[in-house]
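Here we describe the complex-level prediction in full. Unlike the single-chain runs in Section 2.1, the two entities below were treated as one system.
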Amino acid sequence: MIDFSLEPELIQLKDSVYRYATDNIIPIQEKIQLELDEKEEFAWPIWEKFKEFGLLGFPFPQEYGGQGASALATTIAWEALGLAGVDGGMVMSLSAHTILCGVPLMTFGSEDQKKRYLTKLATGEMIGCFAITEPHGGSDSIHLKTTAVKKGDRWILNGSKLYITNAPIGDLFLVLAATDKSLSSAGITAFLVEKGFKGFSVSRKLQKMGNRLSPTGEIVFEDCEVPEENVLGEVNMGFVQIVRTIFGWERSVMLSPSVGSLETVIKALMAFANNRTAFGKPISYFQAIQKKIVDMKVTLEVARSYLYTIAWHIDRGELPFVEASSFKLFWGDSIVQHIYEAIQILGGLGYMRESKIEKGYRDVRLITIGGGTSEVQRTIVARAILGLSGKEIE
Amino acid sequence: MKILVPIKRTHDPYSKIKLKPDGSGIDTSNIKFVINPFDEIAVEEALRKKEKHGGEVVILSIGTQEAVEQIRTALAMGADRGILVDTAGKTLDQDSIARIMVKIIGEEKPDLVIMGKQAIDDDSNQVGQLLSEYLNWPQATFASKVDIQDKKATVVREVDGGLETVEVDLPAIITTDLRLNQPRYASLPGIMKAKQKPLKVVKLDELGVDITPKVVVEKLETPPERKAGIKVKDVDELIAKLKEMKALPF
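The structure predicted for the assembly as a whole is:
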């Protein structure tokens, strides 16, 4: 039997997070968002509010200072943040910290690593980052040029990583480096690198189109020394184990705030279309406008069901890697198109900064790129459904 | 110290209310329900007093099975156990509610009853006061600050034009005003813990309370829609218009 109902506890959670964000985050955000977007600066007061509610360690076990949330509970809480209208960039920074850095650490970390780092991510004492993308390769996360060579009880890292969320404010970096290039994806290892490690540096802060409250940077390893006990998981298993788990979350759970925000956008558009008149009647009477809003609503419902299903798979201990890719592909292409149409419905108002939808448009544009481009997602799905091996695609 | 907090399931203050076509009540389809916001403040105050003085916080709701949702929310905030008096959909007036509470209070014997000054749906502001009368307990209504020490409560009340401080002996009834505190938000661990907390359901019929209504709601109507205003040039025109509308006493 299939039961599609959410547990009452999850409904309660969604309500609690929504109310918390509406009462405590939005009033602060209203005052600073536009200015920080212009200056491209991180909103520390909002981060403090994430911390206060326990969001920084939301899916971590309670013994490490977390809230013990399942993937589905995290999805629902994150969706509530989007529903309340919490800044896209700030939520992206939260996800990079909690999901991209925290979840693999919680899943594959040794007891010692979890005590040393996971507890500090939960309290916000450390800010987490995930570093896989390189300047030459973008979404090609297999052919890494950053290398790690074992020397005594240390690993020596060399190379650089680009477009790293939270890098300018980060304390802990989950870094993927090639440890055996001959083995391709089976020769990659994950390392936990602290910002103070010798040979590590943040070389620059980058300027972006959207998500501008979330700082992004480039990091460089010059004979960077990483102690042996900071290898996460097994040597050479960094991609096969860890990255695939991260991608599973990144391409589903992490996109849930934008699903919540589409619901909020639709509500705003409904009110607008019923009130705004043209040629003597509300614009909601025109089929061209109806089509846009109806399509958004259909996408919203499909996306939410799909998203919850993937989170449910994760909670069953499965690895819905291909499903997550196909969700991201669907969602990225859809949301960009829908927010484009939302601006179209709002017209001149939508083009103005005060309407905030122009910011939303710049923010969601990343979804077809970050976390693997739509093209790469299509390749992953194609490979899976056509039964092709990696070699044939490459 | 044992604190009893009666809570009411009401519509979300932010939801748009529609009436049933016959005016017999509000149309509850598509409406979100919450703990009456004043009662939520009472839950928060009870939890703070428990954190300071120890003891137990018991939640009481009188309503349909659906009110379990609101009791669970209060348990998720940190209350210890809940009681639902299941009314099976019967319509009750404020006096009946107070009489039912008297019955439960007689069994529970709390040191303090703290509740909202009124529910945001019918705004009647009566139950706390009635309860005080029937129990012969002191009352401190519209509280904006509550201190408890040596079996006494010092309560700052919001009254017209200022604040009044009263001292009452416990057990007592306190009703809360808006500025008493900012209620906490249920956390995920709190929500999960609430699942395991005891919740007793009592059938209304079994209590033997006379619930013959003394007040019957005949009909509900929405306020008439406001007409659009007009702009006037100057004060003279304004006065002329007001005279025309007979809105001036002279």
